[in-house]
Amino acid sequence: MKIVKLMIIIPLLLSAEVDMKKSVYDAANEMIEFDNKLNNIIAEHNKYDDEDLKEMRKNDISIEDFEDTPTGYELNQKIEDANNTKIDVDVLDGLLTITTEKKVRVKIDNGYETTITSSKVSLFIPNDADESKIESDYSNGFLKITMPKKK
Q1: How far is the CA of 120 from the CAs of 9, 91, 98, in angstroms?
Q2: Choosing a second label site near 107 at 20 to 30 A (CA), which of 43, 84, 97, 147?
């Protein structure tokens, strides 16, 4: 009698887990869709056209931008407008966060206008990367991040 009950419960638990994963992915997709809509509304409000958006996304970084080498992972990326761009790189609990802030000051009729644009990208580092030895350098318009592999 106990065996029959257990055989009924196990498939129910497995199907519940699959449904739960599906709902998490659905929620993530909804969040991505919402984020895209919000970005479009902001772009429309600020009267950005497609060229402006492409220009702003030049410095976007993704995990695919890292080169997998025999000893680790490496990113070498040119940052547009390096004179006005500040970059911060942090690592915590397997999450690499790159914060970019760009400040532009433009002369207008009766003074100056300063525009500050910032972005933050968080990427999970590969499981075989040694988080304690990640190094970053931002100089001469190039961002370099190295993540050695665990030994």
Answers
A1: 44, 13, 6
A2: 43
Distance of alpha carbon 50 from alpha carbon 39, whole angstroms: 12
| Interior/surface letters 14-38, b for 16+ CB within 10 angstroms, e for the rest | eeeeeeeeeeeeeeeeeeeeeeeee
User: How far is the first Cα of the chain from the last one, in angstroms, to the nearest whole number?
Assistant: 52
With H, G, I as helix, E, B as strand and everything else as coil, classify residue 8: helix
**pTM (whole model) above 0.85:** no
| pLDDT digits 0-9 by tens, 30-58 | 877 887 787 778 777 777 676 665 555 55
CA 1 from centroid of its chain's CA atoms = 53
> Could you say which DSSP state residue 57 is in?
G
Residue type, 69: T
- Burial class for 82, CB neighbours closer than 10 Å (0-12, 13-18, 19+): middle
Mean pLDDT confidence for 70-93: 85
| pLDDT higher at 92 or 31 | 92
